[in-house]
Amino acid sequence: MIADFETDELPAGWDHGVCVVGAGAAGLTLTHELLQRGHRVLLLEGGGQSRWERRSQALNKTELEGRTYAGAHCGRFRGFGGSTSAWAGQVMELDSLDFEPRPWIPGSGWAISKSELDEFYRRAERLEGTDGLADEEAVWQGYGGAKPYLGDDFTISLSRYCPEKKFARVFSHLLQDPRCLIVLHANAVELLVSGSGRRVSGLRVRCLGGKEATATVDTVALCLGGIESSRFLLNQTISPWNVSGLLGRHFQDHVQCFAGDVIGADLTAEDWPFGPWRLRGGAHLSKINLSAEAQRAHRTLNVSGMIEFDDGVYPAMRTGIKLLTGPASAIGLREFVRMVPRAPGAIWHHFRSRSDPRFALPWAKPKLSVYSEQSPLSESRIELSDARDPLGLRRARLTWAISELELHTIRTYVSLVRQAFAAKGLGEIVPDPDLMRDRFADRLVDLFHHCGGTRMSPDPRQGVVDTDLKLHGVENVYVCSSSVFPTSGFTNPTHTIMALAIRLADRLSELAALHRAA
Length: 518
Fold this sequence. Notes:
alpha/beta; about 525 residues; about 20% strand; globular; eight-stranded antiparallel sheet
């Protein structure tokens, strides 16, 4: 069942067990899982059914301080399907080490172990359709029968790509389920608490046209995304969940850079496994990961890389997204000037690569591309601006910082990959001339992987949500988002977000059963 709050009213007396706020990967997964367990769900989405709805996208306008941060405007999509309407569909698990305290990394470690998510990762694969893809052993059989070996400092892993990357299609069955009411253009603006202040009894929603209503709720799951989760909670007049003062703090992304030229490597060889193209079948991409032992020895963050082409397509794409979805005011003059000559190549690559996955632009140069985790205690943060959006909420102000730990990690990784490639005769890695200089930090870009800000911890003095993702200080509000990640590894967060959503659905079902029994 679907309604539009701009033209329809919230049905009076709708008997819902859980109100899910946000219809991205987390919200859709959680809603699906709850329906499978017999719950009735009210799913509120602030956007419509189109990712190109500029007026809804304008609500994401963010005030930026410090370094340029493209993901504040390019990596957030309001609408049914959320950011999965514009992603590549790549999924990876976090490493076991990402969940463990690392003595050389302050603030590292989750309050749960990797093994606690293993079951939920498998169930997420079934929803994504990646469980039907060839396993790693079968993939490597097509490349000489064995996984490549670059020495003990590295592990080689494969990411996978969802057969259907647009989750609006994957979860389209929700639109017809009579136990699920989906309301579009219903922006959550305020949590209404009971007299004790320990329980939320209602949720105020508002549309851009100014209409307002209150939804009576039993349980609320905020699935708002990595930046919006912090912004929404910071906008509330109460904040019992913020005893720690960490709400919006230690925001993280993954940093990426082209750290060196690749000389003499035969990237067109049939058995070349290190990028930039997906392996046979188009569903897997290999990653050159720094091993856990090497991370300990060199005191680095988690980091990975591959060979990619530097062709200007990615920067042009980021600017193009802002032109299409807004806000145009987020595009600086220098950024626009750089995009103009790159745009024809980006369009050419977009259409040619559909028919020829190995197409490369004539001027493309092979580079070592590095993807690094950020410090769990990053100085990056989300705060509130004095400016307000059309709904009356204060806009986000985001500061993105790069630490010496990220630079040390990238420099160490380049040195070790360079040695490994030389030892194996795979070609020469020529480091960027600025790699060891401070100004190299200006080459690092974000990947729209918004993590941190509502950190998970069983101790309310050390986090914002507990290990069940429940907000500290209230009984019935949960946050299911990459914002709860204490650390983020180097992998795309979507797969882990889905695993957490499935885990939360199980927990809410257990609590409902206990309540019925009582």
